[in-house]
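Usage

Read records sequentially. Each one opens with the input sequence:
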Amino acid sequence: MKALIIDEPWIGLILRGEKTWEMRRTACHQKGQIALIRKGSGQVVGVADCEGSLPALADADAYRAAEPRHRIPVDRQAQAFADGWRTPWVIKNARPLDRPVAYAHRSGAVIWVNLDPMVAEAVAAQAGALHASVREVQAHSCSSASDDLRTPAASSVPGKRTPIRGWINGNVAHLPLSEANIANGHFYLRSILEFFPPEAVGGSDKTQTADRLLTVRYQPGGTVDTDIAGPNRGNLQKRSSHLFFRDRASIRDFFARSGAQGGDTLIIRREPQNNYTVTLEKLSAT
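and closes with the structure output:
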């Protein structure tokens, strides 16, 4: 098993599901499950799925628009771009190990480490249990009445919770709903953000609307043009990076018309020209 060395704060963001692009200077040809090493720790701390790399970002505008994926702050992006950190390595489904595994770091290993067989076996054993727990959470999201679900991997730390996560199959994304989603008239897109063009992610309020809008059709419900509310783009007071569709009135209407409840799953279909259709899969139908 190969392990990728990543420094803080980036590995922390990846393990929390808040970063899916690891910016590097060269392309990545590795695909499949990998281990994640926190730089300088001497430990494997997580696993993830590596999907290779995308073409290098062409300019500063593309770099800024992709911030919700790579999470490099705006005030550091110009330097990062100038230094050549332009190529996104796509890292998905990251999850921390319940018990970090120590490994022997060989001299000269800077990016990748080939784990010794015993270390790889210990990591793989935990990774298999984690993968099973994630699928169970997705299949039984009705077990929680909040935006968070407790998983077996997190249960060893009192009070620690991991967020409800969606998943993508081609041009269809699946996103479980909680009762808190229904009550607040929104659903978070963070776990499926790569399903949408980065240019459609705007700032934290309506003064920072993205240049590109998405046409979202709710069935049942109406059709709206909206962007995704993201991180603060200006020098405004600190605001949260919500990462949900900015037009929430149409979401509330959809929830009311469809009779949405916690445990149901949103089905979001991607169509040509930035069109998306949102329908509801009731828990009783699964």
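Summary fields computed downstream for this record:
- The CA atoms of residues 98 and 156 lie 8 Å apart.
- Residues 129-162 have pLDDT under 50 and may be disordered.
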